[in-house]
Specification:
This protein has helices at residues 4-16, 20-29, 33-48, and strands at residues 51-60, 66-75, 84-92, 98-108. By secondary structure, the chain is of the alpha+beta class. The protein has a domain at 31-108. The longest helix is centred in the middle third of the chain and has 16 residues, at 33-48. The chain starts with a helix and ends with a strand.
């Protein structure tokens, strides 16, 4: 019985501390800011069907999420100063998976 007690404590300690392999996997799954911005841009284009013009903001949110603001061309007009753009915010997790998105505003290019 005396032998069982130290084993249990040792096993609990091992489970509480992440292994080196788990730490390496987490590091590898993290994306750079540029990769996160590119992924948000592609996801929003695919979901909305609008062409992405630019990424205008990237900021770390709570709980390991990222918020990326992307300007999308919603309506193309001639002259292009009359185009309608939308500013969209995408929230991604650390691995770059889209959690949610929303349109922040819609505006004419000339009014920017």
């Amino acid at each position: 019985m005396a032998d069982e007690q130290p084993r249990r404590k040792r096993r609990q300690r091992d489970e509480a501390e992440p292994s080196d392999a788990a730490r390496r996997r987490r590091r590898r799954s993290r994306l750079s800011g540029a990769q996160l911005a590119q992924r948000a841009r592609r996801e929003l284009e695919e979901i909305t069907g609008f062409e992405a013009e630019s990424v205008t903001a990237l900021e770390r949110g709570e709980g390991g999420t990222w918020r990326v603001t992307v300007e999308l061309l919603e309506l193309s007009r001639i002259p292009d100063t009359d185009d309608m753009l939308g500013s969209f915010e995408a929230e991604l997790d650390e691995s770059g998976e889209l959690r949610r998105y929303r349109r922040l505003r819609r505006y004419a290019r000339i009014r920017g």
